[in-house]
Amino acid sequence: MFPKINPTTTKAWQKLAKHFEKVNDVEMQDLFTSEMNRTEKYSIQWNNFLLDYSKNRMTSETLELLLELADEVKLKEAIEAQFTGKLINETENRAVLHTALRDINNLKPDVKATLSQMEHFSEKIISGSWKGYTGRAITNIVNIGIGGSDLGPAMATEALSFYKNHLKTHYISNIDGDHVMETLKNLDRETTLIIIVSKSFTTQDTLTNAQTVRSWFLEKALESDIEKHFVAVSTNLEEVSSFGISEENTFTLWNWVGGRFSLWSAVGLSTCCAIGYSNFEQLLNGANEMDNHFREAPFSENIPVILALLSVWYNNFFQAETEAVIPYTQYLSKFVNFLQQAVMESNGKSVDRNGNFVNYQTGTVIWGSTGVNAQHAFFQLIHQGTKLIPCDFIAFKEALYGNEEHQRKLLANFHAQTDALLMGTKGTEVENNFKSFSGNRPTNSLFIKKLTPQSLGSLIAIYEHKLFVQGIIWNIFSYDQIGVELGKKLALKRLNS
Known about the structure:
By secondary structure, this protein is an alpha/beta fold. The protein has helices at residues 11-23, 28-34, 38-41, 60-72, 75-83, 109-127, 148-159, 177-184, 204-218, 237-243, 269-275, 277-296, 303-316, 335-347, 379-384, 404-423, 453-474, 485-496; strands at residues 43-46, 49-52, 140-144, 168-172, 192-197, 230-233, 250-251, 322-327, 365-368, 391-396, 443-448.
């Protein structure tokens, strides 16, 4: 039985409420003075990752109570229910097994077959042995999708640009016709491959864009040429076939894979082609390693669990409604957009797993941008504004191109910002209130050795598991997205009126 416990009825929640009254005004600067080993005490080293969560408004008692809360809501049982394929997405009667897509040493037969299909297909595209209708090799790939069928692969492909081959990748998502035509205007039909990603192959946005691209293609080519330039990621073979795409060029999906967790599947075909199958497999491996850590590590040493518990602490006790994510690498410029869907579509719920409206806050608003750009954009609000905004800082120790001067300055900014948010101007004399910084602003620092396909896989998986833990604590179903359906229905009603 999947746990369905109202967190506010637990003993730990009641203790946390009382504890919050005692520590609400405690300043982190004083905590660091009284705990000389605070950084070491509140850090987790795992593989090439280091999470430093010492710069948070918490004490050892806070952490103990948060861990008690995790036990009381039966988080361990919930984790096992997900990993063992229980139908935890009860509103849709589905299992949630995106972790099974990346368990390379223990793959389901159908997943293994699809990965093999992706490997062989991507090798043909990359090598140039796959020819277009005029006999020329493919040079450009256009992915047509929406939501998770776009945000995941677009983010991963951008993040792994350093590992890309000669293929140029493009992503069409918005039903805005200008977006479509702007993408197509410099493409050559003879050397362009189109990947249409739609589980149902009926999604209005995706199919409208696909038909527009199809019409563009047929301005110069024949219907019989479609099979050389269009492939599909879908379960609806009938609709795919009527579009002109053969079954051989169709990659399957499963109903136990949610869209926003699907980049590990054939939805990631564009990424697989862009970076090559061996790198794509490393992406899967990295996520699988984090899956094992999440499933096996004690909660006190568990990176996703700790991040989730701290998020609940701020959201539900400090009433901090937003969290900022600041990656100090331009490669992760699309990471926050990806997280916004993953987190806010998952945990933007007001009905609990018992079917009751909640009387406490769920979900968090995720926003952010890459450092150092963010420092010159919205950091003023975080430093001196009236809102409490917990931040995750993400940095890679090694630069991919080896430019040490740039990397040294980048990391200096990373460390300086978390120090400034912690200390402010406390203990120093300032000329006036305008130059006063209160500090005491919470941050997590996630240090990773190097941006590789493997480390990116682990990083993404951290946030997937974090949102799962949050959803378990808030007693909501994180894996449906009923909230996106009403607008779709009303749009169709307007179109048909």
